[in-house]
């Protein structure tokens, strides 16, 4: 191959390929995008020289277009890499103009345009882009002059060279000279960009070091480096050491023994261990030192060892944090926890004491039974009601099933307990120590007692209640008998009326006049029996009375002459005080009977000259009838039994008067209250305005 082709095409191609490899290596090492773009640009540039060499032997549209595309694309990538390096973005017009140039060259070659017109636009485009790239390098702010001038000058030179290339046929410049200048310029670009890259790295490194230094000098954590080669010493420590310990950095750097002097004695063994057995990985540990003012400072160190390739420990770097406040908080928390434990223990003790008092002093029989029924505790009410003592259960003489009446009852209860079913007011039968049967309502709650799962049993002994129910049943039967007696009373009354009529007839005859005193006695006794039957009938009456709106004052006024006559016959007085009261539903005849009974009882309770006060008034919404006597009062033993049939303090009394009053009041849904004392007694009958 002629020397011309080697110097013109082959040598620049090889040189461009070598530059491409250099940039690719830098890209793999540092990963910067501009290295990648430059590597691709020089590779395409090398390819372009080889295509140009082929074109010298085979001048076709294909090789011409490919050569043109390589030239434009290589220049474009070179410019893009430069823009990326300088931190600027490419304008879209750059891509458009590049594409337009390649289209122009392809069509121009196809239509056989003159050499000057064909190449001039392309090389003007490439030259202008290259010159502008050089100017970009001149404007870089963060670059030193050496690399900036070499790179910018090389781009300007190659740009001018590209502009002169189409004119070489006119000015008769050797092509080899143009390619030589281009190759030298590209070499300058390579050298200049490398210088710029390393200068930038140095600037960035300086900035990073400055930033790290500012960060290290101003951080609140202590940063240190302890070197082992060539000899052990503290190489660096930041000012946070002064804040934490009160000692200046220069003091500890110039006096290595200060570390040992300020280290708390409790941690001397840790220091010896670290020096004797160097760290093999990241390690975190705590230690304490004395502050310059004598106080103890707690520190936490996070250290990282650095080893050489042959496994030799070079240094230890790390961060030390002041954890004194955290330690104080931990101590406060520990003390608080201790205090809380004491309080909880005290509260638990108080709760246990309260539970113990509530358990042992409860009025209800209670027992605590372990889940396996081996341990039973009972309270005092249990001992009193059931009869078994705590010692009976402790000694094993009695167990849970001994006070249940039936085995199936025991099996049913134990099954419910084992299933954890909630038991509330379960009715069961039990046998006390005296072998008497009782009835109770059982409630069970699962608890923990003496660190054992147990059951708390509470028994509501309703044996007395059941006995009362039986007694009420008996009284109901007596009531039935009373009603039957009342029915019989009606049948007795009829012949008594006949007998009384004949006695009155015989008394009126003159031949029997000497027997009149006997007739009067018999008639009086018949009237007394009739009155007794009337009271019986009133007590036995269960049908509701016929009620009509009545004014209590009007009933009293109608009775007033009769009441005053009774009082005057006994040398006593009636005082009537009636207030304005509304009407209320009542049975006139029954209220008539109630008033007569109360007033006559009062008259009988007083001595001669006494006064009965008969009053009506309103007490809230209630209409009140009050009958007050001036007797000596009612004895407490009698007072609590008032209203009971046949209860009387009079020699000839039947004990049915007040019982009838209570019965009438009950049928009218009224209440009778009694206020008694040495100066007299008052009966208050309270009616509700809505009636019964």
TrEMBL record:
Q: Give the Histidine kinase domain ranges.
A: 487-691
The protein's annotated catalytic reaction(s) are: ATP + protein L-histidine = ADP + protein N-phospho-L-histidine
Q: Which NCBIfam families match?
A: sensory_box (TIGR00229)
Q: Which GO terms describe its molecular function?
A: ATP binding; phosphorelay sensor kinase activity
* One Pfam family here: HATPase_c
PAS domain: from which residue to which, for each copy? Answer: 208-282
Q: Which InterPro entries match?
A: HATPase_C_sf (IPR036890), HATPase_dom (IPR003594), His_kinase_dom (IPR005467), HisK_dim/P_dom (IPR003661), HisK_dim/P_sf (IPR036097), PAC (IPR001610), PAS (IPR000014), PAS-assoc_C (IPR000700)
Question: What keywords were assigned to this record?
Answer: ATP-binding, Coiled coil, Kinase, Membrane, Nucleotide-binding, Phosphoprotein, Transferase, Transmembrane, Transmembrane helix, Two-component regulatory system
Q: Which CDD domains match?
A: HisKA, PAS
EC number, UniProt record = 2.7.13.3
Name of this chain's protein? histidine kinase
- Recorded coiled-coil stretches: 319-354
Superkingdom of origin organism:
Bacteria
List all membrane-crossing ranges.
6-25, 37-55, 61-80, 92-111, 117-138, 150-171, 177-198
Q: Which organism is it from?
A: Desulforamulus ferrireducens
């Amino acid at each position: 191959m002629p020397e011309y082709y080697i110097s013109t095409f082959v040598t620049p191609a090889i040189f461009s390929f070598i530059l491409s490899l250099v940039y690719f290596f830098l890209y793999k090492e540092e990963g910067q995008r501009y290295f990648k773009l430059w590597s691709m640009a020089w590779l395409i540039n090398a390819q372009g020289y080889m295509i140009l060499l082929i074109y010298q032997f085979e001048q076709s549209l294909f090789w011409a277009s490919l050569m043109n595309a390589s030239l434009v694309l290589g220049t474009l990538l070179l410019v893009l890499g430069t823009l990326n390096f300088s931190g600027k973005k490419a304008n879209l017009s750059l891509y458009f103009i590049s594409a337009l140039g390649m289209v122009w060259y392809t069509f121009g070659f196809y239509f056989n345009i003159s050499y000057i017109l064909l190449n001039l636009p392309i090389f003007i485009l490439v030259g202008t882009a290259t010159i502008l790239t050089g100017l970009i390098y001149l404007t870089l702010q963060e670059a030193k002059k050496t690399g900036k001038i070499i790179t910018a000058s090389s781009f300007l030179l190659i740009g001018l060279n590209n502009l002169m290339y189409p004119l070489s046929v006119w000015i008769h410049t050797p092509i080899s000279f143009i390619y030589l200048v281009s190759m030298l310029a590209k070499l300058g670009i390579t050298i200049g960009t490398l210088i710029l890259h390393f200068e930038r790295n140095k600037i960035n490194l300086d900035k990073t070091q400055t930033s790290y230094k500012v960060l290290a000098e101003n951080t609140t954590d202590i940063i240190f480096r302890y070197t082992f080669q060539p000899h052990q010493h503290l190489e660096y420590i930041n000012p946070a050491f002064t804040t934490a310990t009160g000692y200046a950095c220069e003091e500890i750097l110039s006096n290595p023994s200060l570390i040992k002097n300020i280290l708390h004695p409790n941690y001397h063994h840790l220091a010896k261990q670290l020096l004797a057995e160097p760290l093999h990985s990241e390690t975190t540990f705590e230690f304490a030192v004395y502050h310059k003012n004598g106080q103890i400072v707690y520190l936490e160190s996070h250290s990282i060892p650095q080893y050489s390739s042959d496994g030799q420990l070079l240094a230890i770097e790390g961060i030390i944090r002041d954890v004194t406040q955290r330690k104080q908080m931990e101590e406060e928390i520990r003390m608080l926890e201790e205090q809380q434990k004491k309080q909880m223990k005290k509260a638990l003790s108080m709760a246990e004491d309260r539970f113990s008092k509530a358990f042992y002093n409860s009025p209800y029989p209670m027992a605590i039974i372990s889940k396996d029924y081996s341990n039973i505790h009972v309270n005092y009410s249990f001992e009193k009601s059931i009869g078994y003592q705590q010692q009976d259960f402790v000694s094993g003489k009695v167990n849970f099933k001994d006070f249940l009446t039936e085995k199936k009852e025991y099996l049913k209860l134990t099954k419910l307990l084992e299933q954890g079913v909630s038991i509330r007011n379960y009715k069961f039968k039990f046998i006390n120590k005296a072998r008497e049967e009782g009835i109770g309502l059982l409630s069970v709650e699962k608890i923990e007692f003496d660190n054992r799962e147990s059951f708390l049993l509470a028994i509501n002994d309703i044996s007395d209640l059941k006995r009362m129910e039986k007694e009420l049943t008996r009284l109901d039967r007596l009531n039935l008998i009373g009603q039957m007696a009342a029915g019989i009373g009606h049948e007795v009354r009829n012949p008594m009326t006949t007998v009384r009529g004949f006695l009155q007839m015989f008394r009126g005859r003159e031949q029997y006049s000497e027997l009149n005193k006997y007739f009067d006695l018999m008639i009086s006794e018949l009237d007394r029996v009739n009155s007794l039957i009337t009271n019986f009938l009133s007590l036995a009456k269960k049908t509701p009375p016929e009620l009509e709106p009545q004014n209590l004052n009007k009933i009293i006024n109608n009775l007033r002459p009769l009441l005053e006559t009774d009082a005057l016959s006994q040398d006593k007085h009636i005082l009537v005080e009636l207030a304005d009261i509304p009407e209320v539903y009542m049975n006139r005849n029954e209220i008539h009977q109630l008033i007569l009974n109360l007033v006559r009882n009062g008259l009988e309770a007083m001595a001669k000259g006494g006064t009965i006060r008969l009053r009506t008034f309103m007490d809230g919404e209630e209409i009140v009838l009050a009958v007050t006597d001036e007797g000596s009062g009612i004895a407490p033993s009698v007072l609590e039994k008032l209203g009971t049939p046949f209860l009387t303090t009079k020699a000839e009394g039947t004990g049915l008067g007040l019982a009838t009053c209570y019965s009438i009041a009950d049928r009218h849904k009224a209440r009778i209250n009694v206020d008694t004392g040495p100066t007299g007694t008052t009966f208050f009958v309270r009616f509700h305005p809505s009636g019964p």
